[in-house]
Design a protein that fits this description.
The protein is of the alpha+beta class and 340 residues long. 15% of the residues lie in helices and 26% in strands. The strands form seven sheets. It has a five-stranded mixed beta sheet, with no helix packed on it. A five-stranded mixed beta sheet has the order 9-20-21-16-15.
Length: 340
């Protein structure tokens, strides 16, 4: 007479008198259900479909068994209202506790007075070719200039004063009044302005077209050979790094400098011959200076700053701290309201 095998994963009928030793293919383990996956603790196969789980073939061979496995012990619930202990209400099986990883500890912000370190430069082949071409052109121009008078100003020479867009058209240009900005360009928190008049704007073209706040004479030659000019820059981030893109063409690697510590970046770029761009940024987050690098290309400069901790930055620069609101300021404000 055939009997039903109660080994897990088998479910076949067998004859106890003629059943061989390895006739049963079963699972010696217990069912495991975790994160929508179903399987057996004795083998590694997992599936999300319950029908596939029931059809997983056994991983062990042995004899069929006609002994029914014991039913799990359920806690007794009495209607008399007696409160059972918490340990008695727990199901009777082995419990596995999985502990979540500890959260990352935030890095304390280092001091801004840390010494600055020069970041490593990586010059692209396209920039080397462009600089070699410019070098040959400058040598040709220098040989032509030697043949001409050294103090003569060429027609079309632009005024070197900041904010002035006039060009030299002849001796009459020296009699014209130059409207210029004696200060330097400032880029901060998305706003652009000159340090001398502080007429702030967010549009770059509007910034370039701002009329000068001072009057004087045109300066057709720059004795230092460098002219501080505004230069557009932008930034983007990933989970691991922040990239600052400076759109300065044909920058000179030998004269450019990018220094940084954990919270500050100081940028000094010489590009297109005599143009100079400087910027100091107090970073919103903390960076790893040893893993940061400057990639110099023909069309722009990319400063790749490695984040010290994997987190998203709300902005590139850190806003300056606001002065504390004291009780004296509050009394002063109340007094002004009463006077009004």
């Amino acid at each position: 007479m055939s009997e039903l095998c109660y080994n897990r994963g088998c479910g076949q009928r067998f004859d106890p008198d003629s059943s061989p030793e390895d006739a049963c293919t079963f699972h010696p383990g217990v069912p495991v259900f975790h994160d929508a996956l179903k399987g057996w603790s004795c083998c590694k196969r997992r599936t999300t479909d319950f029908s596939d789980f029931l059809s997983i073939s056994g991983c062990t061979k042995g004899r069929h068994s006609n002994k029914r496995p014991p039913d799990p012990v359920k806690p007794e619930v009495k209607s008399s209202g007696e409160k059972k202990k918490l340990e008695d209400l727990k199901p009777q099986f082995d419990e596995y506790i999985i502990q979540a990883p500890k959260p990352l500890e935030f890095i304390k912000r280092p001091s801004a007075d840390e010494p600055l370190v020069e970041l490593q430069q990586k010059v692209s082949p396209s920039l080397r070719q462009a600089l070699e071409k410019l070098r040959l052109q400058s040598e040709t121009n220098q040989s032509i200039e030697k043949e001409e008078e050294g103090n003569e100003v060429k027609i079309g020479t632009a005024c070197k004063n900041g904010g002035c867009s006039k060009t030299f058209s002849g001796p009459k240009s020296n009699e014209e009044t130059c409207s210029y900005h004696p200060g330097g360009p400032v880029f901060h928190e998305g706003l652009k302005y000159w340090s001398c008049c502080r007429r702030k704007t967010s549009d770059f073209n509007s910034f370039l077209s701002q009329e000068g706040c001072s009057k004087g004479t045109h300066m057709w030659k720059n004795a230092e050979g460098k002219k501080v000019v505004p230069c557009r820059f932008d930034w983007h981030q990933t989970g691991a790094q922040v990239t600052i893109s400076i759109y300065a063409k044909n920058s000179n690697p030998e004269l450019c400098s990018v220094q940084a510590n954990s919270t500050t970046v100081c940028i000094s770029v010489i590009f297109e011959g005599e143009k100079e761009f400087e910027q100091k940024i107090s970073l919103w987050g903390v960076i790893d200076v040893s893993k940061s690098i400057v990639n110099m290309m023909a069309s722009k400069i990319e400063i790749a700053l490695k984040k010290a901790e994997p987190m998203s930055w709300a902005r590139l620069d850190l806003p300056p701290p606001q002065p504390p609101f004291t009780h004296e300021k509050k009394e002063k404000q109340d007094g002004e309201k009463e006077s009004v």
